[in-house]
Amino acid sequence: MKNDVVPIDIRGLLPTNHGCAVFVGNDEKVFVIQIEHSMGEVIGRFMRDIPKERPLTHDLLNHIFESFGITVERVVITELRNSTYFARLILEQKNELGRKIVELDARPSDCLALATAHKKPVYVSKKLFAEVEDMSEALAQTTEDRDEGDDD
Questions:
Q1: What local confidence, expressed as pLDDT, does residue 95 receive?
Q2: Range of the domain at 41
Q3: Which residues does 118 contact at the CB level (< 8 Å), separation at least 6?
Q4: Which of 28, 63, 68, 98 is exposed most, by the fewest CB atoms within 10 A?
Q5: Is residue 85's pLDDT more than 60?
Q6: Using CA atoms, how far apart are residues 131 and 119, in angstroms rounded to an integer?
Q7: Is-contact 36 19, C-beta < 8 A?
Q8: Residue 142 — pLDDT band, cuts 50, 70, 90?
């Protein structure tokens, strides 16, 4: 697996008119995944460890995983097809019967939320990483604009 993927992190979240732009990448390249506004809020809360009044859907999943001895191992953003990103959620279950690895198809937004909540690694396929447009400058400009706005 290590030869087929590139490690990435969430580099920034930016609300947009139609949802939220998640900037993901590494020192080499950053790209954007557009997600629903509510998912951007969830990821942002997990990134900042903000407590919630009531459990959200991802919190429920986390409690179910914990109850069954399941851990999030990693997520992989695999491809871009018809302007839609695809991802895989890799889970591990250990119990008295042994160890089981399960790989599930999942939305990148859900994968990013779970990886962030569990502080687990995020990867992108090398093929996809080579194809996506580098948005590092856009992220830098957005960060710069936001920092300048804080002075007001």
A1: 84
A2: 5-149
A3: 62, 71, 72
A4: 98
A5: yes
A6: 27
A7: yes
A8: confident
